[in-house]
Prior knowledge:
The protein is α/β, with parallel strands linked by helices. It has helices at residues 45-62, 76-88, 101-113, 209-217, 251-266, 269-289, 318-330, 357-376; strands spanning 69-74, 94-98, 119-122, 139-143, 145-146, 151-152, 167-170, 187-191, 202-207, 231-232, 235-236, 294-296, 308-313, 347-350. β10 (231-232) and β11 form a beta hairpin. The longest helix has 21 residues, at 269-289. The chain is globular and about 70 Å long. It starts with 44 loop residues before the first helix and ends with a helix. The relative contact order is 0.20. The mean pLDDT is 97. The structure holds pyridoxal-5'-phosphate.
Amino acid sequence: MTDTPPRPGTKPARPHFSSGPCAKPPGWSPERLATGSLGRSHRSKLGKARLQYCIDLMREMLALPDTHRIGIVPGSDTGAFEMAMWTMLGARPVTTLAWESFGEGWVTDAVKQLKLDPNVIRADYGQLPDLGQVDWSNDVLFTWNGTTSGVRVPDGDWIADDREGLSFADATSAMFAYDLPWDKIDVATFSWQKVLGGEGGHGVLILGPRAVERLETYTPAWPLPKVFRLVSKGALAEGVFKGETINTPSMLAVEDAIFALEWAKSEGGLAGLIRRSNANAAALDAIVAARPWLGHLASDAASRSTTSVCLTVEGADEALIKKMASLLEAEDAAYDVASYRDAPPGLRIWCGATVNTADIEALGPWLDWAYASAKAA
Ligand SMILES: Cc1ncc(COP(=O)(O)O)c(C=O)c1O
């Protein structure tokens, strides 16, 4: 038998560090959700009012300008992003950027499903591609925050003001964590399950005026399933952006999102959420800086995520990471911290706003314990 190091004294009060679905907002419990809209038609006065309230709160918490529409759609972030791809692409050449698994997924959609022959600009895990290479006469697809590599675009400065193409941002792990430059974004998508700690199932679709113009003036060559249809008789289906969902939503998921958004408001809205996430990322960074065996997968601090923080572990292979993650889970010290299945073996710690900084701070000694224990095993 090999000696294992002693367990640290303090555990994170909430060991929920998964990068999706992410930790519930502090203080959440199912009893605290409003349930009056459950078991009712989502098209009843009450159902529609709750959906509209959810949309209004999202707009307020994102500081979304009036130029952009925001609506609830089926299929979580994937549904929202694919809805945008299927309804708007094909009108002009396409560039897709990929530096981790989800961006790569949109490349697959564009190449294999839509057969668009896009210009693909790639970078390895931990890096960003050269954003200066992007030709803005194209429609451009990218992931604002690469959840599986912990690399994000640093800002929107690389997005041309006079672009002819549309910018499509999969921003599911960026929304409510960064101050997004809305004038640079024609399409953005996210799911409640990330920074809000909400549920999956629904996606949120944000459209700028140029995206609406595309929808109203262009008809794709391929058939569109009903759940993707945003246009009716040549005009945008405005109801989608007023809580008249295309098909039946989960009102439980909506009520859960409302809880999270009201919590966000009590934390000071977007600025408060960004502050919480930055504090978490800084606390984790201090843990990394103090340990020679831990490092950041994202080499450049300017494009390092403050939500899905991906760490390298010296000498680790998949088996060691699996062991560390299962030891941490068995102790209820940290859940779901192994890197994504397609990413290099390492740890991934969610630092979004619903995580408390004290819990990140308490994690450091547990990482030491799990690393030593896994190596000794
Ligand atoms: C960047 C990114 N895109 C898309 C997805 C898929 O999201 P969903 O499962 O909510 O559809 C994820 C999920 O982690 C993601 O991180």
